[in-house]
Amino acid sequence: MSEVLTLAKKAREAANALAKTSTDERNRALVAMSDALVARQNEILGANALDVAAARAKGTAAPLVDRLELTAARIGAIAEALKSLSLLPDPIGEVLSGSRLANGIWLQQVRVPMGVVAMIYEARPNVTADAAGLCIKTANAVILRGGSMAQHSNLMMTEVLASAAVGAGMPEGCIQSIESTDHAAAEELMGLHGKIDVLIPRGGAKLIQSVVQNAKVPVIETGVGNCHVYIHEKADPAMAERIVVNAKCQRPGVCNAAESLLIDEAVYATFLPPILTALQSAGVTIYGDEKTLSLEGVEGIEAATEDDWGTEYLDMKISCKVVTGLDEAISHVNMYGTKHSEAIVTEDYASALRFLNEVDAAAVYVNASTRFTDGAEFGLGAEIGISTQKLHARGPMGLTALTTAKFIAMGSGQIRE
Amino acid sequence: MSEVLTLAKKAREAANALAKTSTDERNRALVAMSDALVARQNEILGANALDVAAARAKGTAAPLVDRLELTAARIGAIAEALKSLSLLPDPIGEVLSGSRLANGIWLQQVRVPMGVVAMIYEARPNVTADAAGLCIKTANAVILRGGSMAQHSNLMMTEVLASAAVGAGMPEGCIQSIESTDHAAAEELMGLHGKIDVLIPRGGAKLIQSVVQNAKVPVIETGVGNCHVYIHEKADPAMAERIVVNAKCQRPGVCNAAESLLIDEAVYATFLPPILTALQSAGVTIYGDEKTLSLEGVEGIEAATEDDWGTEYLDMKISCKVVTGLDEAISHVNMYGTKHSEAIVTEDYASALRFLNEVDAAAVYVNASTRFTDGAEFGLGAEIGISTQKLHARGPMGLTALTTAKFIAMGSGQIRE
What is the pTM of this model? Predict the structure, then answer.
């Protein structure tokens, strides 16, 4: 039996056992996992040092090495997050609906664990602990497949977390990482229909695409965001500038950052120059359409190509297009957006309502920055990722995204006539 | 552009337009569709006669021809179902949750249409009208791909339904059928990631498997049911017999019919003979394990093989296995079941609770027939199918399975610090 299949089999056994654990038992396991990360931090730091040295030797870019590197402080923060998770309410067992059927059967729909959750992710080793914690909290077994760059860190963290969880009464196999780093192992995991209940990829567009193309198991797509801010002709120009600059610059490398600016023809000549100047002062390169390029008083704008409308820069870059009005703005967003986060800036009531109703995205904003699309900002307590698909979960996913429902029917001998 | 791609493009435009329609407009369209089916029934019956004649000429089995054949009465019933749909509450626009965030943003999670729904189904032409009606009700555009055996019927029904819907104000392209009957067209449809929001296959295990293996778009798996009735040692034997006979025989060709009987070792020698005799009197063939075969007083039992435990007969056949007790029963169900509908018969409180908690299935029953897993029986108003996956919808799916959610955020200039 292959490594992946062996792990999947153990995970299913663990999932069946986890379904019998109580809320208190799982919360105690989370605290034990948190304590173990701190108690065994030297082992984790030692493994991480190997990954960091290898990454540096390969000439990996400094920001990537920074994402990879663990410190005692970072491990402390990861451990704290596990402890916080133990304090959140347990979603498992919630009765979602219920009724007494006409025939006397007492029917309830109850929230239950997914079973076996798989995660494929890239170089940040903190995802290992996050994913393990979220799955233990929701009584799911988890199979982790981290990026090869963080392999020593991930395997050590998995060992520390799994042995602490098992020591606290969780079943063997509840937290497992795939040791093989070749692509075939990842593809095998994606193909285990019936053995994996849900696969959640976390990473860049390339990883997500690979999963979408290859997976036979149910997938929750996450995190690709080509987000727009649309400045309507009735916008308050100072608010528009504040929102555009925040949505682009506050953290440009994340999925809810703005990648494209749309503005109404009626106001672009007056509103746009100070906004573009503010963006440029912050270090943003602007890719403009013809009208933007012909603006007076703004220098150094690059010419946008058709490709720019569909590009998620994840960088200090923004595309800019002048539109004829609300209709064109909504069409453009629905055509080029990735259905993540979209904002309109306007003081006009009817235009705000139309944008909210007609834009097809996980989160639609009036007069606020797209940067708010986030589990913590939305008050979800914990975040698994941001779903950009419509099935199951959409937008920031809290613990309930790792659950499903089961109908429970209590009868007294009823048969169907 | 291929036929399928052309249809998908039109469907997206239709979906955007449907998102703007009101509940009343869509309900009026459903009534118009219902009226048109009756008014144009001769055209539909004419097209159906071609399909029926071709099926007979090919020597198709009588039950299949019966499922294919339409009559004025059947069209009347289909038309009635569309009218009933118009009377159900509209799920679209429901506010699922909402709060005022600390920063003043007013956040709501609102139920919205999926967008473009695709259905691939087999020979029953009534599914064409069902699917079209469910999608118009929920403001989704639908692309239908029916079985080639019913192609004339499906295309004519689509024409009648679509022109009535458009005549009542729905957008062009809201209801479309794929004309090409080759497999490449179906595969192309399954691959349209980003263009199809959800694909729902309705049909046998082979169709479902083909979709699971080939689809790149999000899928809701439906309807394969290897369902068990487990007779616990503390069961009331008369109730056990009534439930087993009902679960197996009331309608053996459907997914919630029982396919396997488990019984405790402690009682099988006394409980099983009358139950098996009752099943045999009803015309059921029994595939038994060794203990079942060695029962005295019951003749004509076939020997079960390992394959029988995993087989969905959809026929007057049942497998029968003697288990050591609750633990083995739960393990067996979780190993061989398809997570559809599972029942225990017992008078013991603790055993009932354990079965409900530990069996992993869409619907779990105590002392009732598995045949109740059904949208109408569960009071869902309309049924799209029965999901056997855990993502998005599980068990009988009502209208809400064709919806997703959107976060709507109303701000007053908030930016993220």
Answer: 0.93
